Amino acid sequence: MKSTLILLATLIFSGINSLADPVAVFDVQWGKGKQRQSRSFAIAFFDASAPQTAANFRKLVKDGFYVKTTLHRVFPNYLVQGGDPLSKRKDRTVIGTGGPGYTLRAEIRRKHTRGAVAMGRLPDNINPTRQSNGSQFYVCLQPIASQDGKDTVFGEVISGLDALDEISRLPADSNANPIDRIQVRRTYIVDRSELGRPTKIR
User: What CA–CA distance (Å, rounded) separates 91 from 171?
Assistant: First the structure.
C-alpha cells in the first residue's frame, strides 16, 4: 500500500497533469511497402473516477513505454487490446502475459460503453482484489455490459474510434492476434484543444 501511494504521489507531482485537458495519442501502423497503413486514435481520461490508473497511463505514454508494442488482440466490432511489452518480441506465445512489473489497485466505477478504455487484469480466482495490469488496456467497440463492475474503466476514445473498428476486423490467428503486426509507432500527450492540428509533443 505504501509503495502504491508513493507511486501515485510521484505521478501527480511529476508535471504530467499540468495540461488543462490532457489526452493520449497513439499512432499505429501495419503492412509493408505500398500496403502500409497508418492510423491514430486519442484517449481522454476519467481522472475523477480512476485517478491512479489515468495518471499511470499518462506516464507510460509520456515515457514511450508503448512504442513498438502492438495491438495484440482484435475481436471484430467488439474489442481491441494492447499494452503488453512482450508484444515487442517475435514470440507470439507469450503475448498477453506481460506488464510493467507492478499492478494498480481497482478503481471500478464506470461502465463499459462504446469507446470506453479499461485495464486488463487477471481473473478473480487468482486476483480477488481485482488489481489491474499496470499497462495492458482494451477499448470497447460496443457496450460490454458483462464487464461492468469487473474492470477499471479509466478513459474513452474521443478520436479515431473508426480506425479501431477497422483494425478490429483485420485478419487474426486463432488467439485473436492480428496476422500483420499492428505496431505502435508513436505516443504523446497533448491538450484536447490541440487535436487535429500540428502539435508540440510534450
Answer: 18
